[in-house]
Design a protein that fits this description.
Length: 74
Protein backbone atom coordinates (compact mmCIF):
# COMPACT_ATOMS: atom_id res chain seq x y z
CA UNK A 1 0.00 0.00 0.00
CA UNK A 2 2.91 2.37 0.59
CA UNK A 3 3.83 2.22 -3.11
CA UNK A 4 0.28 3.14 -4.18
CA UNK A 5 0.16 6.26 -2.04
CA UNK A 6 3.09 8.11 -3.73
CA UNK A 7 1.78 7.06 -7.14
CA UNK A 8 -1.69 8.31 -6.24
CA UNK A 9 -0.25 11.57 -4.94
CA UNK A 10 1.71 12.00 -8.17
CA UNK A 11 -1.43 11.30 -10.17
CA UNK A 12 -3.32 13.97 -8.22
CA UNK A 13 -0.45 16.40 -8.77
CA UNK A 14 -0.42 15.75 -12.52
CA UNK A 15 -4.19 16.06 -12.62
CA UNK A 16 -3.98 19.42 -10.85
CA UNK A 17 -1.34 20.63 -13.29
CA UNK A 18 -3.51 19.58 -16.22
CA UNK A 19 -6.50 21.42 -14.73
CA UNK A 20 -4.42 24.58 -14.28
CA UNK A 21 -3.06 24.25 -17.81
CA UNK A 22 -6.57 23.87 -19.24
CA UNK A 23 -7.74 26.93 -17.32
CA UNK A 24 -4.76 28.91 -18.59
CA UNK A 25 -5.52 27.83 -22.16
CA UNK A 26 -9.15 28.88 -21.74
CA UNK A 27 -8.16 32.30 -20.37
CA UNK A 28 -5.58 32.82 -23.11
CA UNK A 29 -8.12 31.89 -25.80
CA UNK A 30 -10.58 34.36 -24.29
CA UNK A 31 -7.93 37.08 -24.11
CA UNK A 32 -6.88 36.34 -27.68
CA UNK A 33 -10.47 36.63 -28.87
CA UNK A 34 -10.80 39.98 -27.10
CA UNK A 35 -7.55 41.24 -28.57
CA UNK A 36 -8.62 40.23 -32.08
CA UNK A 37 -11.92 42.09 -31.65
CA UNK A 38 -10.05 45.13 -30.37
CA UNK A 39 -7.65 44.95 -33.31
CA UNK A 40 -10.55 44.79 -35.77
CA UNK A 41 -12.22 47.77 -34.07
CA UNK A 42 -9.00 49.78 -34.14
CA UNK A 43 -8.37 48.93 -37.79
CA UNK A 44 -11.89 50.12 -38.66
CA UNK A 45 -11.43 53.27 -36.62
CA UNK A 46 -8.07 53.93 -38.30
CA UNK A 47 -9.62 53.49 -41.73
CA UNK A 48 -12.41 55.94 -40.86
CA UNK A 49 -9.91 58.48 -39.55
CA UNK A 50 -7.78 58.17 -42.68
CA UNK A 51 -10.87 58.78 -44.82
CA UNK A 52 -11.82 61.85 -42.75
CA UNK A 53 -8.26 63.12 -43.00
CA UNK A 54 -8.34 62.72 -46.77
CA UNK A 55 -11.66 64.59 -46.96
CA UNK A 56 -10.28 67.43 -44.86
CA UNK A 57 -7.13 67.60 -46.98
CA UNK A 58 -9.22 67.75 -50.15
CA UNK A 59 -11.37 70.54 -48.71
CA UNK A 60 -8.35 72.56 -47.59
CA UNK A 61 -6.72 72.17 -51.01
CA UNK A 62 -9.98 73.32 -52.65
CA UNK A 63 -10.11 76.37 -50.36
CA UNK A 64 -6.51 77.22 -51.15
CA UNK A 65 -7.23 76.92 -54.87
CA UNK A 66 -10.27 79.23 -54.52
CA UNK A 67 -8.27 81.77 -52.52
CA UNK A 68 -5.52 81.74 -55.14
CA UNK A 69 -8.05 82.24 -57.93
CA UNK A 70 -9.60 85.13 -56.01
CA UNK A 71 -6.17 86.58 -55.41
CA UNK A 72 -5.26 86.29 -59.08
CA UNK A 73 -8.58 87.80 -60.15
CA UNK A 74 -8.17 90.83 -57.93
Amino acid sequence: MSNANPALNELYEVSGRIDRLLELCRRLAEENRGLRQSQEHLATERSNLLAKNEQARTRVEAMIARLRSLENGA
